[in-house]
Fold this sequence. Notes:
The structure holds two protein chains of two kinds. By secondary structure, chain A is mainly beta. Chain A has no helices and eleven strands. In chain A, the strands form two sheets. In chain A, strands 2, 4, 5, 6, 9, 10 and 11 form a seven-stranded mixed beta sheet that branches. In chain A, strands 1-3-8-7 form a four-stranded antiparallel beta sheet, with no helix packed on it. Chain A starts with a strand and ends with a strand. The mean pLDDT of chain A is about 95. Chain B has strands at about 5, 10-15, 20-25, 30-35, 45-50, 50-55, 60-65, 70-75, 85-90, 95-100, 105-109. In chain B, strands 2, 4, 5, 9, 10 and 11 form a six-stranded mixed beta sheet that branches. A five-stranded antiparallel beta sheet of chain B has the order 1-3-8-7-6, with no helix packed on it. Chain B is globular, with a radius of gyration of 13 Å. At the A-B interface, strand 4, strand 5, strand 9 and strand 10 of A face strand 4, strand 5, strand 9 and strand 10 of B.
Amino acid sequence: DTEVTQTPKHLVMGMTNKKSLKCEQHMGHRAMYWYKQKAKKPPELMFVYSYEKLSINESVPSRFSPECPNSSLLNLHLHALQPEDSALYLCASSLAGPETQYFGPGTRLLVL
Amino acid sequence: GIQVEQSPPDLILQEGANSTLRCNFSDSVNNLQWFHQNPWGQLINLFYIPSGTKQNGRLSATTVATERYSLLYISSSQTTDSGVYFCAVGGTSGSRLTFGEGTQLTVNP
């Protein structure tokens, strides 16, 4: 099974809200990733967790807060977002490092 | 960081036609993947191909790492092949993937 699941599929939030995105995989992968994709653009890497430790933060604003509670689960906590943060947020996982990354279906986020 | 260029940016085909998509990259890589993004946003793995040649049905890919390019071949295209094709590469320093701008493929019936 090469499935990465993400919830919710869609999310609308106000600029003062706090919400969380969830990503799960049961493939035994030890690297997990968050990407942000704006319309008509390629995905851009936000964070990488390796063996449940944050290994890469691509200078993402602190209103995005990642969390990796265990090897199967990755969260992205959102607080005080701006309308320009509206995008498709994609989660991915890979076995450990530079191998095939498998992507979830994404969460479409709209910030009002 | 690594630069990734894909061409052409847009491609319109009639059903049944063949096509070649190209990905150039600026440095040595230890990861190269081709993805198809469907209209709902799902990124579907096509190939993991940092070097060599692979085939899967009507699709095949070749990466010439020494010359820093990869090609994706689609034969006998179908309307369901429509979507955006991304090449993504990872350098030797870790697991970061950098995506090209993509090729928007439209296959007309």
